[in-house]
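tool_log.txt
---
The assistant was asked to compare two proteins side by side. It first ran the structure predictor on the initial sequence, then on the second. Raw inputs and outputs are pasted verbatim so the downstream comparison step can read them without reformatting.
(1)
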Amino acid sequence: INAEYMGNEINLYIGLAGCLEKFDNLARGFAEVDRSEQERRLKEAEKESAVLTDTNEKDSASFYILVMKKILEKGNDYAPKERKRLEKLLDSKITEIKKLHIKKKLNILPSFYT
């Protein structure tokens, strides 16, 4: 069963490793909304991040926030470009721990353009 299909059809959140529901919701359609809405979502993400206590969740939240800032700075096509860059890194000679971190980031990025 396709997890994305299930989530869309029955309104059930099934997050991939590294994904956080509140942040996925803030990221969804981020590139399509106007700048003031992007800035509002960024502030909301920063507020939500401040109350997190779990280290892994804080790391994920930091990446969502970084991508939001980069989209504001570099433009709406940042997330797909970053995905390509990370996919190339994943194919290089890096440690397994680094690969895990990259895979989590790759799980988060589609939230910005779905």
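(2)
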Amino acid sequence: SSAGATALSSSSTTHSNPCCKTYASHVNTKYCVASDFLCGNNNRSNKSSSSPLVVTGSETGQVYLYDLNSKRVVQILQHHPETPVLAVSCHDAMDWIVTGGMTQDRTVRFWAP
């Protein structure tokens, strides 16, 4: 399967602005997959990145955490095997992530990466 891309632009109201960054390791070909920023308090257990993170779901059942600046995958979380993760939300001040997808049991997961 091919990878999708989460793109960040400098303005959401104008379509003429060029894309600033593209994060493309996750799969996003069929569904609308949500993304969010994780800025938190930088006390995360994974110390390989101290910059803000871009958090996005994937159609593979995983959640990808990208370093905002380098675009490198910092961590991959397994939400539910082979079930798209369509909902992602991050807490404004803490390193907490909430994810949801197309699971039959309507599972919502809370993460502290």
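---
observation on (2): The two ends are 27 Å apart (CA to CA). Strands lie at 6-9, 19-23, 35-38, 53-57, 62-67, 73-78, 85-90, 97-101, 108-111.
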